């Protein structure tokens, strides 16, 4: 019998402590992002999801612990070399006024260009492919600020794709978007992982969308990882109560087999002296 090899990990964090004040937000986090899969960070507000993403992306230096990219300390590698391997899309990015879609997507080519180097044929091809994959080519010459929220988010993702990195980190890429647009974006990101073998790490807030699209869920609370694994294993009523203090049932979607969270409705509180209380007494 041949045993299958465990998924490879190109980005790992070991013993990470990081924050913005004296008290750390991350409190000794160990994590390994599996190659070619879509991993989602979930947890209540302020638990450290975005801080962990920034620390893994080298935009925030840890006060303790190490981040390893392809087995080497990410802080010991040149910035341009890291940018050729890892792309990050922060929460709520803002494009310079008057920038066209094509110009925005072209900004993703910066790690591959010298100081005085103009766009090469390779740059143009990378931009074209990124716009085609994200379906933004039809408005390539339009201003980014004239687009809808969903269209703009696709343009930002196209910019990261033009960077041609295997690792992509995205902080709440679906926030403030309509549900249909959120689903379309997650379909796109899922295809990137499964068709293009890209490794993606996302911060999301919607529990059911995360369970529907993630290959791996990482549940965080109070700066620590509570549990992680396949959605069918970790997306349980017990873990949702433990992490979110949420009283909910977890059902299985009959079509996809994915778990679904259904919050339990609390019984309304009866005012003192109500008819029901008088009868009970």
Give the SSE layout.
Blueprint: E1 9-18, E2 26-34, E3 38-42, H1 49-56, E4 64-69, E5 72-73, H2 79-83, E6 86-89, H3 101-106, H4 121-134, H5 149-162, E7 167-171, H6 179-196, E8 199-203, H7 207-213, E9 216-221, E10 224-229, H8 231-234, H9 237-244, E11 248-252, E12 259-263, H10 275-280
Parallel strand pairs: 3-8, 3-9, 6-7, 7-8
Antiparallel strand pairs: 1-2, 1-4, 4-5, 9-10, 11-12
Helix pairs in contact: 4-5
Please write the CATH class name: Alpha Beta
Tell me the helix content: 25-40%
Largest sheet: 6 strands, mixed
What's the count of strands?
12
Which consecutive residue ranges, at least 5 long each, have pLDDT under 50?
1-6
What's the structural domain tally?
A: 1
How would you describe the overall organization of this protein?
The protein has 281 residues and is α/β, with parallel strands linked by helices. It starts with 8 loop residues before the first strand and ends with a helix. Helix 4 runs antiparallel to helix 5. The model is unreliable at 1-6 (pLDDT under 50). It contains 10 helices and 12 strands. It has a single domain (9-230), classed as P-loop containing nucleotide triphosphate hydrolases (Rossmann fold). The chain has helices at residues 49-56, 79-83, 101-106, 121-134, 149-162, 179-196, 207-213, 231-234, 237-244, 275-280, and strands at 9-18, 26-34, 38-42, 64-69, 72-73, 86-89, 167-171, 199-203, 216-221, 224-229, 248-252, 259-263.
């Amino acid at each position: 019998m041949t045993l299958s090899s465990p998924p490879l990990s190109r980005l790992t964090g070991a013993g990470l402590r990081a924050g913005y004040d004296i008290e750390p937000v991350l409190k000794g986090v160990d994590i390994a992002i599996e190659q070619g899969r879509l991993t989602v960070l979930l947890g209540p507000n302020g638990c450290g999801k975005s801080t962990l993403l920034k620390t893994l992306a080298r935009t925030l230096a840890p006060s303790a612990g190490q981040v390893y990219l392809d087995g080497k300390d990410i802080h010991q590698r040149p910035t341009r070399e890291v940018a050729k391997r890892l792309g990050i899309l922060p929460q709520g990015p803002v494009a310079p006024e008057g920038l066209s879609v094509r110009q925005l997507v072209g900004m993703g080519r910066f790690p591959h260009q010298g100081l005085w180097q103009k766009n090469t044929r390779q740059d143009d091809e990378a931009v074209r492919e990124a716009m085609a994959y994200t379906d933004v080519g039809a408005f390539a010459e339009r201003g980014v600020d004239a687009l809808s929220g969903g269209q703009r988010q696709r343009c930002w993702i196209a910019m990261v794709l033009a960077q041609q990195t295997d690792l992509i980190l995205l902080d709440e890429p679906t926030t403030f978007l309509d549900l249909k647009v959120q689903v379309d974006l997650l379909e796109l990101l899922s295809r990137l992982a499964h068709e293009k073998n890209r490794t993606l790490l996302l911060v999301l807030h919607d529990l059911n969308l995360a369970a529907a699209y993630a290959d791996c869920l990482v549940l965080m609370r109070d700066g620590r990882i509570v549990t992680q694994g396949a959605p069918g294993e970790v997306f349980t009523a017990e873990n949702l109560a433990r992490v979110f203090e949420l009283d909910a049932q977890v059902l299985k979607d009959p079509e996809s087999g994915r778990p679904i969270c259904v919050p339990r409705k609390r019984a309304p509180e009866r005012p003192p002296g109500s008819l029901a209380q008088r009868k009970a007494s």
